[in-house]
Amino acid sequence: MKTITRIDQIFLITRGIKKMVKMSDVAKLAEVSNATVSRVLSSPENVREETRKRVLESIKELNYQPNTIARSFRKMETKSILVIVPDVTNQFFSEVLRGIEQKAGENGYQVLLGNSNNDVEKEYDFLNQLRQRQADGMILLTARMKQEVIEEFSEDFPVVLACEYKEGSSIPTVSIDNISGARKATEHLINLGHKRIAHLSGPMEVILSRDRLKGYHQAMLRNELETDSVLVQEGDYSYEAGYNLMNKLCALEEPPTAVFAANDEMAIGAIKAAKENFFRVPEDIAVVGFDDIKISSIFEPSLTTVSQPKLEIGEKAMELLLKQMNFEELNRKQIVLEDKLILRQSCGFNKKKK
Amino acid sequence: MKTITRIDQIFLITRGIKKMVKMSDVAKLAEVSNATVSRVLSSPENVREETRKRVLESIKELNYQPNTIARSFRKMETKSILVIVPDVTNQFFSEVLRGIEQKAGENGYQVLLGNSNNDVEKEYDFLNQLRQRQADGMILLTARMKQEVIEEFSEDFPVVLACEYKEGSSIPTVSIDNISGARKATEHLINLGHKRIAHLSGPMEVILSRDRLKGYHQAMLRNELETDSVLVQEGDYSYEAGYNLMNKLCALEEPPTAVFAANDEMAIGAIKAAKENFFRVPEDIAVVGFDDIKISSIFEPSLTTVSQPKLEIGEKAMELLLKQMNFEELNRKQIVLEDKLILRQSCGFNKKKK
DNA sequence: GCATTTTTTGTAATCGATTACATTTATTCG
DNA sequence: CGAATAAATGTAATCGATTACAAAAAATGC
What we know:
The structure is a homodimer.
Chain A: H1 6-10, E1 13-14, E2 17-18, H2 23-30, H3 34-42, H4 49-62, H5 68-75, E3 80-85, H6 91-106, E4 110-115, H7 120-131, E5 137-140, H8 147-156, E6 159-162, E7 173-176, H9 178-191, E8 197-201, H10 207-222, E9 232-234, H11 239-250, E10 258-261, H12 264-276, E11 286-291, H13 295-298, E12 304-307, H14 310-325, E13 334-337, E14 340-342
Parallel strand pairs in A: 3-4, 3-5, 5-6, 6-7, 7-13, 8-9, 8-10, 10-11, 11-12
Antiparallel strand pairs in A: 1-2, 12-14
Helix pairs in contact in A: 2-3, 2-4, 6-14, 9-10, 11-12
Chain B binds a DNA duplex through helix 3 and helix 5.
């Protein structure tokens, strides 16, 4: 009966690095070969019950933890994926992230978070990280890089675009139909009788922004409304941009009676500015946003907005990525999920009288 | 003059795995040994200019990317750290994260994000990930695990606690003085003339919650105010908890005239509930929060709150971790940063007349 | 009981970069 | 110029788990 003491286990501390128990230590104690220990861990059904028990006991006794780096090295996979977010502090993305994380966790993948900080250069850096095998795959929640680059890259590595996409490309993508969502939002304002409707757009180099603008234009055109070009203002999806742009609009000789903002953060900034300019929302100016982030329902007036299925976007994106990493065929490469217009107070809808 | 075509580079696709260019390929093309290539990459000053140039050209020509897994394996380090967050969607943490990310990036470290979802079991799982060397160190933004466990763990691996801490432990920690912060907040309400002050606390098993409660009690005691035990309600830091608890308080025969909430999310939930119960904020009920998250200044009424230096907490935590990973001595293990009471409308302060 | 098949275990090569040590080449200096 | 020293490069072991293949042990069948 051999007993291993704690002293035996913890041993030498050399230059601060703890000497770890390795597989061969377990093998020795259990009086089997390295291979058998490995098998107990990865395919226990091929090991005789008795041997397996002995090995497991040794593992426990030595408190052995397999060295993931060595395993990764041998198998040339990290069991982790990289998710690139334009801005970690943005609520919208953190919910998508949650969807990704969940599916990833279920399938034994770690999520490495990459914050691009809205900087394209950073995005390119992240591609290299994947090239260097720091992760097995990648989900991009922002894609400002050149189309050719991403496309070529996606031929060699598992990549999924979520939310953003590239026109006419074959990169697996999960998103909603931004054009129709924006159209719905704008049409809602039109149906409420508004004619002078402004749009606070996102940056034009981002396709989402162009799509939402397009939806806005379509709605205006279909209803034979003119769009005064001064009513379309380009922002960057930030609260501050919404606030500043709305201040501009309020200063116009003929201010709009309604505003469709390309996301909720800008919409809230806009409402804030409108109020400060003594416009009542929704009475004087109705506002509609996009995304349905958490504050939108809490803020007053609560925000009418186009709701994206954030969690589902994350989950589906991870599913697409998993399939690629497992070399499964993708039957559908472009997944378009349903958005939904949520009516709240900021455009005059009242759930309950107050 | 040897030319390498794209075909040469991209080669065989076997079972979907692209054959990568490796160091030996570069060595062969540059007609040097493996070691020299390695040196060009990690200590170029030891390689003759001419040779170095030749190697760099080959690297470029073959588009060689070092295999990080192999490097990690050999050096037994991943150059990544693990950050455990109780909830990714929480604004407060995402800002701390940004501080961590920044410092990590500057020092060549990747940030692996772990979402514990407020589940202790998950936290224990993350410890094992570190044991298995998935990362070189770990920052805990939540620490519900048993003190002994974390402490023993922290002897073998680089760990930093941020925001949370463990009493009388020697684990490196970055935080503010929550007791004094809470006391300040409560005293502010007392100075405004409030006597019946409620407290919406966090879960009692979290030390932050206990500290903030303690600060509240201290302030009351010092000012010889009685604390009606029905006025202290335990929540879980969520908007919903604040909302529900405030509904309870409003239904009291003698409702409080002021509320100190243990964080901003609960404070905002509380204001929302107060309003729905026809209490005006701050006229009928003054509210103070804790954390100073972004919405707090946007929400109406804007929220008086104790501001934590979120970014700095993240940076300092990463600095402590870096020192541990580099086996440097820590001169100070417990870092306490300054908080600041920010006066806004929710307790009757008006920056500008409206 | 012995040949055949099946199951279990062991042996040793392998993944790709790093690095201690050995060797070669270049430089310095009397 | 040649010895001594310094600089540049090469050789080969190494990190720890996995796995193809070989060998041994157990089970089966006649």
